[in-house]
Specification:
Number of domains: 4
Shape: globular
Number of strands: 8
Number of helices: 22
Largest sheet: 2 strands, antiparallel
Distance between the termini: 47 Å
Structural class: mainly alpha
Helix content: 40-55%
CATH topology of the largest domain: Lysozyme
Order of helices and strands: HHHHHHHHHHHHEEHHEEHHHEHHEHEHHE
CATH class of the largest domain: Mainly Alpha
Radius of gyration: 25 Å
């Protein structure tokens, strides 16, 4: 019997003993709970269990047995497990719910390309299953394609449509790209690193390492964002299979995969028109059809797809004439003014007027008009006062961006806040640094260090980085 087999027998025995005794050690909240303790019916909802390394190693080894992608446990993987199961567990709960909508689609496409089904977890690392996610480097969608990469896979991007946000087409492109990258490296960990950083980045790291082709040996030569990518992917494999062990309750999405279907159309229309005719919220159309940038579906000669709840498909087909009725005149300036203050499909935020602000500046900032602002706030004049609070209605995507920017304002810091100083290295990105150091927010990182865009991130620049407690 080989030493490796003996090791795993010993490891299995220890793990079984661990389960048999039914205890989880080292709780973050200094609690010890026992699954079978008769005094405890179930784990309290606010408890956060943390297990010994041996347990994580064993469970990841079990996942590895069923995957052609090498899944292994180490301190870097453990760090990402903690991020998902402790620091961002509420976020993970939402991701698990969204997986019921997107994973069946991912699995179907991965199977078509004969790729490992575990690659579905890559979209969590990339976008947290947000089809309209935009990174600091301008990568977009569930699978985070930059514009130049998307053109390789014929993903259309124009003023009305961004197919990088289309779950169906972007997933097809991601499968094609992953297949190509694996063909280059014949190693899934290197292929994943190349998906994040690009084939050239991985090739350069191999050369700098002296020709080594093991991810863990070349990762010191990779940019910060890329060298954390494979550990994050392994951690996501673990947490998506064992979130129940960490007492995480999924937040169910409004829709799962079997709740929706598609209709093909060849004429132009708007979300507003569809909403009016078949009585469906614009927010639902935006959620299910994230690739249409302006809530408008242009005429495409080859036809295009609209995703709808199952219970609205028949109504859509029966009312196509009304939906595509061109007798509805295009709004002119008088109509736009008359319709000022529209709030359908929008979310209210509060804007506080600061020194130097005026109506035009605020309207430009929030993609609205002066008449909108005056109508929303019943303002009879053009006068604004510093400190005045205004009701502003924005689309859900902009509302989320504003919420992220406001997430950790400076005034919430106190003397116990932990921070470090970091010197920017060549190849660093804002997102990569935020991920590497588990920053409290990208917005805070940028604000604290006067960073407006990636070009401000010069090698040698010293950053002050606040860390999660």
């Amino acid at each position: 019997m080989s030493g490796k087999i003996c090791f795993w027998i010993l490891l299995s025995s220890l793990f079984l003993l661990f389960n048999e005794n039914n205890y989880a050690s080292d709780y973050r909240l200094s609690k010890e709970l026992s699954d079978n303790d008769p005094s405890i019916d179930k784990m309290k909802k606010d408890s956060i269990p943390i297990f010994p390394d041996l347990v994580y190693e064993y469970k990841i080894a079990e996942l590895n047995n069923l995957s052609p992608i090498e899944l292994e446990y180490n301190d870097r993987v453990r760090r990402y497990i903690d991020v998902y199961t402790i620091e961002r567990r509420e976020h993970l709960a939402k991701i698990i719910g969204l997986a019921e909508l997107y994973f069946p689609l991912f699995e179907e496409k991965l199977d078509k390309y004969q790729l490992p089904l575990e690659l579905k977890y890559l979209a969590i690392v990339e976008s947290a299953l947000d089809p309209r996610a935009v990174s600091s480097s301008a990568a977009v969608g569930l699978w985070q394609f930059k514009l130049n990469t998307s053109t390789m896979f014929d993903l259309e991007v124009n003023s009305y449509v961004d197919e990088r946000c289309d779950p169906y087409k972007a997933t097809e492109a991601a499968c094609s790209y992953l297949q190509y990258l694996y063909r280059i490296y014949n190693d899934w960990q290197l292929a994943l690193a190349a998906y994040n950083g690009g084939p050239g980045v991985v090739r350069n790291a191999i050369e700098r390492s002296g020709g080594k082709t093991d991810f863990w040996e070349i990762h010191p030569y990779l940019p910060a964002q890329t060298n954390g990518y494979v550990p994050a992917f392994i951690a996501v494999n673990y947490v998506m299979n064992h979130y129940k062990d960490h007492n995480i309750e999924p937040v169910r999405s409004d829709f799962i995969n079997i709740d929706v279907d598609t209709v093909q159309i060849t004429k132009s229309t708007s979300f507003k028109r569809i909403s009016e005719v078949i009585d469906i919220p614009i927010e639902t159309l935006q959620f299910l059809n994230p690739s249409y940038k302006k809530d408008y579906i242009p005429k495409i000669s080859a036809g295009t797809t609209v995703v709808l709840p199952n219970n609205k498909i028949k109504s859509f087909i029966r009312n196509e004439k009304a939906i595509f009725d061109k007798s509805i005149p295009k709004k002119n300036f008088i109509d736009v003014v008359a319709d000022a203050g529209e709030t359908n499909g929008k979310i209210k935020i509060i804007h506080e007027v600061t020194r130097g602000e005026y109506f035009h500046k605020i309207a430009i900032k929030y993609n609205c008009t002066i008449d909108d602002i005056k109508t929303w706030n019943s303002l009879p004049t053009n006068d604004l006062n510093i400190g005045q609070k205004l009701d502003i209605y924005v689309d859900p995507m902009q509302a989320q961006m504003i919420e992220d920017e406001r997430n950790v304002p400076k005034q919430q810091r106190d003397t116990t806040d932990r921070y470090i100083f970091y010197t920017v290295q060549k190849g660093d990105t804002i997102y990569g640094i935020a991920t590497k150091f588990n920053c409290r927010s990208i917005a805070e990182l940028k604000e604290e260090n006067d960073i407006d865009q990636e070009t401000d991130l010069k090698p040698g620049k010293k950053l002050k980085i606040y860390l999660n407690k």
